[in-house]
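User: Predict PKD domain-containing protein's structure from this.
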Amino acid sequence: MNKSIKIVSLLFIFISFLACDNDDDTIENNKLSAGYTYIREASPGMITFINTSSNAESYEWDFGDGTTSMFQNPVKTFTQTGEYTVTLTAKNNATGAVDSFSSTVSIFVFQGGLVTNGDFESGTAPWTFGVVNPINPSLLVSENGNTYFSVNVAAAGNPFDVNLSHKGIAMTQGKTYRLTFDAWSDVNRSMVVGIGLSGDPWTNQVVTQNLTTSVQTFSIDLVANFTNNNSRVIFDLGAAIGRVNIDNVTLNELP
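Assistant:
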């Protein structure tokens, strides 16, 4: 075999090798891969899913709560606290390839019962400072992803001089209501809490709770001595000085 033939043969082998290598790269680059990340939105339980799949043409989402979606980047609102296994199935319609990716999404959805926005994550409404005045947004503190009500009582007076209320709740005389909330202060002090009417004759059922500088969760059962569709939850804070912080307020009627 002469030298020219040897060179041509080697060149052919080299080109064939490059072609195979390029084919492998093409196959790898065209490989179907399913994947996603997600963002927690400000609205409770709302998740925006970001599809990171490669070489896919259609998508099927299973959110683990019995609901599904075929959107590429769906926005999902979970209504219950829990651990949800969310599965994305990606398909390449041309090749018939299918790939799936699953991960667990932890959801916490605050349930206030008869109270709306008891965790103060949706702003100030429908809470009032006093019976009629909307809460100044400056009385809401946000830190470490949590928002709560906070007011500094500079001078002691009547308990109702500094009041946080949630009106518009229908309550029935003789029914028992469980009021729960988190509260703490920068000093050891007390406050008056309970349920009652939003106007004259101001009938109510209240108790006094002692606060410390540590966060405490309180649970109080109260029997309504009134019937009214515009009843309220009451926090009377004015009897002692110190900063009072309140969060995660719930009210539920007991069987």
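The chain has two domains: 36-107, 127-253.
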